[in-house]
Amino acid sequence: MTDVVQGETHPSERAAVLATFRHAPLPAKTLLAGAFVNRLGAFLNIFLVLFLTSRGYSAGQAAFALGVYGGGAIVGVLLGGALSIRLGARNASVLSMVGASVPLAAILYLPSFGLILVAVALVSLAGQLYRPASATLLSDLTPANRQVMIFAMYRFGLNLGTTVAPLFGFALYNLAAKSYALVFWVEALISLFYATLAWLTLPARAADGAAAGAEPVAEEDADGKAKTGRAGYRAMLRDRRYMLYLVAIFFFGVVYVQYLSTLPLDVRDSGVAIFWYTLAVSLNGFIVISFELLVTKYAQAWSQRLTIAWALVLVGIGVGVYGLPLGPAVILLGTLIWSVGEILGGPATTAYPVVAGPAHLKGHYIGGFHFAWSLGAAVGPVVGGWLFIRLGHQVWPVLTAGSVLSIVLVLLSVRDRPAPKPSR
Questions:
Q1: What kind and span of H or E run contains 359?
Q2: pTM, whole model, 2 decimals?
Q3: Among 106, 144, 226, 289, which lies 20 to 30 A Cα-Cα from 327?
C-alpha cells in the first residue's frame, strides 16, 4: 500500500506551503511536478494555428482544428473520470502521455487536413485522461486540512508551466531554424519523460486508505466496484447540489475566458493601443504566480462556500469594470480586480470536488468539474463574440449577469465540511 502523508498536522502548520510540500510523499511530489512539466511542454494548443497556416491551410481550417482540440480535451476529462478508479493514477498517466506523444509527433508528417484533425483530437483526448485520476490520488495522499493548499500548489505548477511554455516553444522554433519539428518532438519527448517518471514513482492503484481526515472508502466486492465504475456519472448526476455547482462552474468558465476572446475585440474597436491589453494579460499571470500560494495560506482556513462566492463577486466586478469607457486605466483595474478573485477562489474551486461527494466517486466528481470548466471555456468565446457583434461595448453588463448567476448557484450548492480535528 502506498504511504500517505504522515499523520495529521498541527493547526499552526496547516497553511504552510513548504510544510505541505515537505510532508507530501513522493507520489504527491511527482504529481505536483507533473503539473508543471506537462504544461511546460503543452505546445500544440499554442502553436497549432501557426503551424497549420505555415503549411498552407486557411485561417478557418486552423480555427476549426483548434476547436477540435478543445472538444477532444472535454471528452478526455470525462473519459478520464470514468476510468480513474479502474486505471489508477500511474496507469492513467502512462496511457495518457504515451497515447498523446505518438499522434503528436505524427502531425508533422501527415499529408492531409483530415488526418491532422484526427491526430489533434487524439492528442487532446489522450492528454487529458490522466487528470481526474491524478487529482484523486493527490487528494488521497493529502490530509483534509491541506487539501486547498495542495491544489493551490498544483495550480501554481500549471500556471508557471503555462507562462513559460510559449517562451520555451518559441526558443525551440528558432533553434530549429524557424521550423515546428523540434517544437512538437520535444513535446512528445516531455510526455514520454513524465510517463516514465509516473511509472517509477506512482502507485499502481489509488491509495487503499484516505489521507488523514479524508472520507473513508466503503469496502465493496468486485462486482460492486465494477458497478460503481459504470454508474459513477449517473450517481453524480443524481447529486442535485453538485450539479448546481457544475452549472456555476460552467458560467464561471464562460465569463472568465472573455479576457482572452471578447476583451481584445473591444480593445481594438475602442482604439486603445494593444500594448495595454498585453500588459493586462501579463499582469494577471504575474499576480497569480506571485500571490496565489500566499493568499491560500490564509484563505484555506476560511469557509469554502464563502471563499468561492466572494471570488466570483470579484470576478464579476472586474468584468463589470470593463463596461466603463474603455481606456488603459479601466483595462488594468478590471484585470487587477478579477485576478484577485482568481487567486482567492481558484484553489478552493478546484479542491471542492474532492470533498463534494462519496470518496469512491471522487474521480467522477473531479472529471465532472473539469468537464464543466472546459465546456464553459470552449463556449465562452462563441457566446462573447456573438454578444459583442450585437451589443458592442455593452456586452460587459450582460457578462456580469453571468457572474451573478454563478454566485447564486455557488451559495445554493456548496456545503462547508467540518474542519478536521488535529491529532494530539
A1: none
A2: 0.75
A3: 289
